[in-house]
Automatic annotation (TrEMBL), chains A, B:
Cofactor(s) the record lists: pyridoxal 5'-phosphate
Domain Aminotransferase class I/classII large: from-to ranges: 51-388
Keywords: Aminotransferase, Pyridoxal phosphate, Transferase
InterPro entries found in the cross-reference section: Aminotransferase_I/II_large, Class-I_PLP-dep_aminotransf, PyrdxlP-dep_Trfase, PyrdxlP-dep_Trfase_major, PyrdxlP-dep_Trfase_small
Protein's recorded name: PLP-dependent aminotransferase family protein
Tagged with keyword Oxidoreductase: no
């Protein structure tokens, strides 16, 4: 049946595709999957936190009672009861969020892609933190934006910079809680100043919040969404509080934007799996997360403390690092002359891995930075891995 | 916590987003969800064919035995054993398909979006059938192509047109088996001529095949993929042979393209749900589809026969329609002066719905056409609905 002597195609990719690269992190992860490696590189939540039995029971119940509905095509905007749950969970006494403001998506990453699709033209100015979340930079990059990096200090981005840098921009992307990659948290005062500054410019403010529930002290800061529901786009996810492998998140936005995002989603993948949404609703509707999330906080908080302790013991005093109050990451700044990519090459030889900081910058990278994740590594291995890194850094001084 | 007197945002959407519209079909579906409506409008498979118990048992088994893996993030290219299953199922004695040529996606629609992202620039020439699948036109449209409609007859597209129309094009998109919307099937001779014509031009040929397994006589025609694995991009789906609500499909392509698609997918949604892929593999690995697919064929074949019979009885002789040998759709051509949108408005008043043909054209629409789906309507209702449509059409003559 084969045709005679076919010629392999000379592929001509789109301009946007020519700019695509594989994520630096995913490439490192491939190297560090071997069991002998102590990996601080992953952004994966700890599987110890996955409520397997709760999910198994929910799949069983939904398929037993509503199988034909769960397995059919569903609406693009999402499963009604789950949208309502999300809206209720985000509403405050003076800022009510409506279910029709919620678009269910196939993980937060899809929310980022849809926002890029709908808001970014070639050359559009997009404000990002310094550093910012790599996955967002990747998703937006496909649409050809010009990134503008907002100056920051230990308390996160500086809202006063928005007024001048944000003129004519299409959006500002921020991760205010236990940021990926730095673990930094934006104070209430800065949140209010940021929301006000964006409102003044009419600039859409994206509040990406996958880690907000993972506050070690159990008291999350107020959401920017509730400070201005007409101007803030909120992104949430079930990946860090339930399980990432099912791919489920949501975008909450004013109606005109939700409508556009829904049209874009329809062209992109029709809808997010109906079964997944019904099962997650079944699993959480009776308050499961209220018991479950504190167990994740405890685990991560303990391992964060173990890493901070080890850093204090083994890292030279010329290095500095963030002290997260929640989430999954610590950010290390080394003396200027040390390139963390060079450090990584040496560390991998000694079976320790992390992610160099450079890819997290929208503009000029700071090559003396790195990201450490502590959530999938038990304390004794954290100690050992940090000891090895500390010795390598000391030798480079 | 709210800021004072916020101003609602004046949304400025990207140029591509301004072109976005909600699918005509999805809008019609909203109207026709009421139970009193006899709807031939849907593209949904019949829920009677969903193997609910098989899926329930597979979820139970995967979550019981491999829950922590299934609920974790997974690789972007897909679950290894399922990629291998797909590759084996598509391999023939003289055209072996390798697992690394398979990219798992969140439903075929995502495959279309990724192909558009990676192959289409603003103004790129894209060849499509006349008419073509609406979802593909929508997905590609976001990337600004210039569609070129290939001439066709009752046997589908005419391969001899490719040599002149295909010069400088980026791809040719075809649905050779029981096409959506027409139900037409491309003969083996035309397949070979099409593959050869595309090879001569170095033109990537997309073979979209969601219905291929639903041949009423049980003998699918040879795949174009196997006629030239180096030049054909094959798209498959579990939506029509297992269940659509889980959102699972695949793209099979030469490695240089798979690599680009994988990078684009990473930025788009990281990966398709690991749990879904493991469960589908569990459900089908021991040959379940071999027993299951014939039951779908039988149901659809019977209902197709009922509709063809009713059309013969109730439609005027000045109308013509396709006689599908598989799949889910019949395509009707009315006398030139009848606009099927006008017919639809009258039909909905009498509680019958279908999809007008115009949105399925990449270029000049033929407004006297319409698509009928027979798979979710029992034979007695098919008869009644077609009788109503026949009377309305006769009155318009």
């Amino acid at each position: 049946m084969k045709i005679n002597n076919p010629t392999p195609i000379q592929w001509r990719f789109s301009e946007r595709a020519q700019k695509l690269q594989s994520s630096a992190i995913r490439e490192i992860l491939k190297v560090t999957m071997r069991p002998e490696v102590i990996s601080f590189a992953g952004g994966l939540p700890s599987p110890a936190t996955f409520p397997v039995e709760q999910m198994r029971a929910a799949y069983d119940k939904v398929l037993s009672l509503q199988g034909k509905i769960a397995l059919q095509y569903g609406p693009t905007d999402g499963y009604g009861p789950l949208r309502e749950w999300v809206a209720n969970s985000l509403s405050t006494s003076d800022a009510k969020i409506l279910p029709e403001q919620v678009l269910m998506v196939s993980g937060s990453q899809q929310g980022l892609d849809l926002l890029g699709k709908v808001l970014i033209d070639e050359g559009s100015k997009v404000l990002v933190e310094t550093p910012s979340y790599l996955g967002a930079l990747q998703a937006f990059s496909l649409y050809g934006p010009e990134f503008v990096s907002l100056p920051s200090d230990d308390g996160g981005l500086l809202p006063e910079a928005v007024e001048t840098l944000g003129q004519g921009a299409r959006m500002l992307y921020a991760l205010p809680n236990f940021q990926n990659p730095t673990g930094r948290t934006l104070s209430v005062e800065r949140r209010q100043a940021l929301v006000a500054a964006c409102d003044k410019l009419g600039l859409p403010l994206i509040e990406d919040d996958p880690y907000g529930a993972l506050s070690y002290r159990g008291e999350p800061l107020p959401k920017m969404l509730n400070m201005n529901p007409d101007g803030v786009i909120y992104m949430g996810s079930f990946s860090k509080i339930l399980t990432p492998g099912i791919r489920l998140g949501y975008v909450v936005a004013p109606r005109p934007l939700v409508e556009k995002l829904e049209q874009a989603k329809q062209a992109t993948d029709l809808h997010t799996a109906q079964l997944t949404q019904m099962v997650v609703y079944e699993a959480i509707k009776d308050g499961f997360l209220k018991e479950h999330i504190p167990t994740i906080r405890k685990l991560y908080s303990d391992q964060c403390a173990a890493m901070l302790d080890a850093l204090q013991t083994y890292f030279p005093s010329s290095a500095s690092w963030t002290k997260p109050e929640g989430g999954m990451f610590i950010w290390v700044t080394l003396p200027k002359h040390i390139d963390s990519k060079v450090l990584l090459a040496q560390a991998i030889e000694q079976h320790v891995a992390f992610v160099p900081g450079a890819p997290f910058y929208g503009n000029t990278p700071e090559s003396n930075t790195l990201r450490l994740s502590f959530v999938t590594v038990p304390p004794e291995k954290i100690r050992k891995g940090i000891e090895i890194l500390g010795k390598l850094i000391t030798a480079m001084l």
